[in-house]
Amino acid sequence: AQRILSGNYGKAVTVGAYGEITYNQQEAQNGELDVQRLVLLFGYKFNDKTQFVTEVEFEHVEEVYVEQAFVNYAIAPNMSLRGGLMLVPMGIVNEFHEPTTFNGVERPATDNVIIPTTWREIGVGVTGRFNDLSLGYQAYVFNGFKSTTSDGEGGLSGFLKGSNGLRGGRQKAIKSTVDSPTLSVKLDYYGLPGLRLGLAGYTGKTQAEDDIEELDGANIGVSMLGLDARYAYQRFTARGQFIYASLSDTEAYNTATGKDLGSALQGWYLEGAYNLLPQEKQQRLFAFLRYEQYDTHADTAGTLTRDDAYNRTDITTGLSYHIAPGVVLKGDYQFRDNALSGDNVDDRLNFGIGVWF
Amino acid sequence: AQRILSGNYGKAVTVGAYGEITYNQQEAQNGELDVQRLVLLFGYKFNDKTQFVTEVEFEHVEEVYVEQAFVNYAIAPNMSLRGGLMLVPMGIVNEFHEPTTFNGVERPATDNVIIPTTWREIGVGVTGRFNDLSLGYQAYVFNGFKSTTSDGEGGLSGFLKGSNGLRGGRQKAIKSTVDSPTLSVKLDYYGLPGLRLGLAGYTGKTQAEDDIEELDGANIGVSMLGLDARYAYQRFTARGQFIYASLSDTEAYNTATGKDLGSALQGWYLEGAYNLLPQEKQQRLFAFLRYEQYDTHADTAGTLTRDDAYNRTDITTGLSYHIAPGVVLKGDYQFRDNALSGDNVDDRLNFGIGVWF
Amino acid sequence: AQRILSGNYGKAVTVGAYGEITYNQQEAQNGELDVQRLVLLFGYKFNDKTQFVTEVEFEHVEEVYVEQAFVNYAIAPNMSLRGGLMLVPMGIVNEFHEPTTFNGVERPATDNVIIPTTWREIGVGVTGRFNDLSLGYQAYVFNGFKSTTSDGEGGLSGFLKGSNGLRGGRQKAIKSTVDSPTLSVKLDYYGLPGLRLGLAGYTGKTQAEDDIEELDGANIGVSMLGLDARYAYQRFTARGQFIYASLSDTEAYNTATGKDLGSALQGWYLEGAYNLLPQEKQQRLFAFLRYEQYDTHADTAGTLTRDDAYNRTDITTGLSYHIAPGVVLKGDYQFRDNALSGDNVDDRLNFGIGVWF
Cβ B21–C63 below 8 Å, yes or no? Predict the structure, then answer.
């Protein structure tokens, strides 16, 4: 406050935001309108080497989360140390989730139930690029998921389940328990014109609190591999992603908690888009088609049988109309199905307004 | 985050805020001190045509709401399309609710129980002005109120009631249900010097969820009409407003929910203010008097009898001391009564600090 | 919104923030990682005389509080009036709590259980300095603590307790009850080079709601005295603080509520630090040692016996590495004990990242 009243406002401050207002309507049902998220971004450049970035997210109008808060410290021209609350680099959307950067009102389902986007934890690590090799790299030690807590009666209550895998286990830096470190690495190759390839890995165990860490099934192991590609050529763009996660000790976990967590999660998608407007226009109007396949019961351990309802296929097609750089209007239709016989998943119509600055 | 670390902070960003710190003391009782609201505003101008505005509100220190979030897109010099979470244009204060824009610590009661200020929903529409006619216009399709939800036992639980009309039915864009569109229009005429006249209309039905929409009393109809005027001449200012809402199907609603919602709501006020300081001063000190009459049981349907306790008269008089443009200190006393015999409503003393930038 | 869309963003706006990401590990237990707090600051200079400052705090990722919101109005070159939600000036850290301003990952315990940092309420007062005397002053009337509320059965439920004194009684400007004013004064003497001395006093009663204010034990009296000193000479810095609070009517309070609130609270600490890096470097690396003694049962009234578990000694030693002005990495170890025989308090290892801009 003392500082403020002297009025030293500098150019070192960055203020930004992104947001998504969405309309979702499943077949023959009422629609839902929601300010799904509004995220404020504040950054500061302390000096040439030292920067701080934070994002504060408001979800569904009235929930709040500090989503990112980290210090970036340059130790060499193409190498920085980072520490704080950061995004885990896995696939495309977990790191680049602003609505103007992807087609479709909703993020790909793989980036929801396989990669638990927005997946963030507190960690430290190094990031940079080898320009000669056209290679960017990130390597972090992160805090891990929490899979269980005490059920108050000497047993375990579980956060992970078959329908959405690891999603319920994110600690989100909220007074998070630390038991063992987990490792996250991503490499990005940008040596071919218009193409960007990513290879990501994550491995570690979940983090049980002191009172339960000795119980059978308290922790599971998580290993995740991700491949992604983005391509742009004139008015055509494409992207794809493949994610596979292997979970160990899920039999003991399921026995202890009564959950149905799979032992392997897998998802992939391919998407092509074409800009219907002339390239010299500032506005862009992409027509796109995305084929996505994902299964949170790609494999199961012990007596748990695979639930084909979790083996899903989504075909999404629609338009992304960028009325200005940073503002997009979206509309799409999702043909959704699973591996059970018959059409068991409601198709869905979506509209959205997205901004990013 | 990538973008931030490169430090591209531009002049296109707007940061603002408004806030109200209030002291309310009813006759012979302890007072209450509250940071009633602090609202942060962020805007961005993407290009000459395209802007985004959002307001994040913190109420009573610890509650948070995204209150506005919309894109404004100019399609002609005096015409813009708007979409997102917006204010419904009805009366004066729902749109212009910053504390430096009105006299009195608390907003007029009409703008609370007749118009459920801050009334906002997600919508799309058009806004602009016909300069030749000195006429501004707004026309939107908004999502509507939600009057009922399932009571879990096959019946209905109601959000609307006699004491404050539609207030409990605002969906506020929180995963809001959409069943049918509602329409909102406002015209503003500014052709006479110092005078601004407004005429607003709103009509539509409430939005019931799928599981109850067929039940008797699940939805009501809402039609609202508003007239408002603001006048300024030298050191004298005046404003007034008349609001009438007609609600249909309230008998079925009351029967199904056990509520006492009126079938008509009506309120009006007249206010005059005089600046006690010379006009050439930057500071202004307004003495004001407001007479207000409002009734959430202006009419009732079926067997429901009008409750005279809802037929209210407030006389508010006090001072608004603008110590700088954007900062106001307020103090007033409210003589409050209803149509029951005797003086049944406690009078109230109010003080406040308001800022807007 | 109207204003925003015209894009009048000025240099009068200040945007800032501070934050702390912490790791705490008690002996032989799992550690905890937390975004303990992220605080956004917005200020505006309306004109040469009039400014507004607000801070919005996000605690543990998902809680939100408006922590400060006040208007500062200069009535003379070295004298300002202030009103709004402000910090109570007592000791060093309640006013200067940004992580780059103090050594140690966690704030001194005296600034938690004796001074209930961050101690803020709504108030009005005057602040300024007498340059001839090298004397700064602050004098405010604040709203007070709330010690009790109705237990719903005609009795009292209490917010204050032996283990952390007044901490649970902060009203934080959340629809806070006002029964009687409390007074707060601080003087700061900066006449000797490198030294800054503070003397603070606070006195008043707690604020009971109307329905219980006549009950025995509903209110207590609070008087607090604080002395603090900060010293800097070349690479050496030191600071110390002594706080004593006398609480009256605690016997009746404890009888009515079943609590164990002490009648006197006392705490003090001394800390020395030495910058291990050459003074001409922008980076600084302080090694520090703090000895702290605090007792929330410094005295008790009536039949309540002093609990030696509340009579605590903390010795904290570690490093504060300021990698840039405004960014600090911290690590320390806390040897913690109480006056009971044996070593009953777990020692603790702490790491932290702190930023302030």
Answer: no
ipTM of the complex: 0.95
| Strand, coil or helix: A243 | strand
CB distance C133 to C192 below 8 Å: no
Residues in contact with B132: Cβ distance below 8 Å, sequence separation at least 6, in sequence order:
none
- Report cis status (omega within 30 of 0) of the bond before C118: yes
Angstrom distances, CA of residue B53 to CA of A38, A351, B8: 11, 20, 20
Cβ <8 Å between A52 and C357: yes
A201 in a domain, yes or no? Answer: yes
Contacts B94 to C, Cβ<8 Å: none
> Using one digit for the tens of pLDDT, what is the confidence trace for C83-99?
999 999 999 999 999 99
Burial class (CB in 10 A: 0-12, 13-18, 19+), C214: exposed
State whether C72 and A8 contact (CB < 8 Å). Answer: no
Q: Across chain B, what does the average pLDDT equal?
A: 95
Which residues 254-293 of chain B have a CB within 8 Å of chain A?
Answer: none
Neighbours of C175 (CB within 10 A): 15
Please state whether beta strands A264-275 and C311-324 pair in parallel, antiparallel, or not at all (unpaired): unpaired
Each residue of A48-77: pLDDT tens digit? 999 999 999 999 999 999 999 999 999 999
Instruction: Please indicate if any CB of chain A lies within 8 Å of the CB of B12.
Output: yes
* pLDDT band at residue C234 using 50, 70 and 90 as cut-offs: very high
Does residue B3 fall inside a structural domain? Answer: no
Task: Place A3 in a pLDDT band, splitting at 50, 70 and 90.
Answer: very low
Segments forming the whole domain that contains residue C45: 15-356
Q: Residue A223 pairs with which residues in a beta bridge?
A: A203, A246
Triad A132, A133, A138: Cα angle to 5°? 115
Interface test with A, best of B2, B41, B46, B179 (most A CBs within 10 A): B46
Give the CATH number of the domain where residue C141 resides.
2.40.160.10
Q: Is residue B5 part of a domain?
A: no
C-alpha C327/C-alpha C352 separation (Å) is 11
Considering only the beta carbons, identify the residue of B15, B53, B329 that sits closest to C42: B15
Q: How deeply is B310 buried, as exposed, middle or buried, from its count of CB atoms within 10 A (0-12, 13-18, 19+)? A: buried
Overall number of domains in chain A: 1
Minimal-distance CA residue of chain A relative to B173: A34
CA distance A346 to C4: 42
Judge whether A253 lies within some domain: yes
Which chains lie within 8 Å of chain C at 3 or more CB pairs, if any?
A, B
Chain C interface, mutation test: which of A4, A6, A51, A118, most C Cβ atoms within 10 Å?
A4
Verify whether the Cβ–Cβ distance A56 to C38 is below 8 Å: yes
